[in-house]
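Our preliminary data section would be incomplete without showing what the modeling component actually yields. Below, a chain of 135 amino acids is followed by its predicted structure, encoded as tokens that our downstream tools consume directly.
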Amino acid sequence: MADIFDVIADGTRRDILQLLRERASAGERGTSVSHIVTELGVSQPTVSKHLKVLRDAELVTVREEGQHRFYSLSPAPLDIIDDWLVPFFDDGLIDDADPATTLPESAVAAADLVGRAAASAKHAWDNAFKRIPGR
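Predicted structure:
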């Protein structure tokens, strides 16, 4: 598997992840390649190339319906990033008083994506754990 940091280092891939997260939050059960192309204004081959990288990193899942493919966010691999970042916050090495004034906009957006993905993964884990008999 590719290094997760290398995977999300690309701005187009982060844009795809953000779009998939927003669409999932709106109740969509997946997003077509053509919708991603339209929303991001990038070519279909470029989107397909990035989706392959995201699939290989297990950051997205694909559901096929006939000739159409629908992609969804799978945030679990982002736990690696969360695990790496948390000690910086816990040790007080990062001043989180106002990150928007100290970090570039792209870093703030990436941090937002990571935080939301981590929260979503934790929520899914907690719900699955509650379903275990005897708990």
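The two ends are 34 Å apart (CA to CA). The helical segments are 4-8, 11-25, 33-40, 44-56, 79-90, 99-102, 105-130. Preliminary results of this kind motivate Aim 1 of the renewal.
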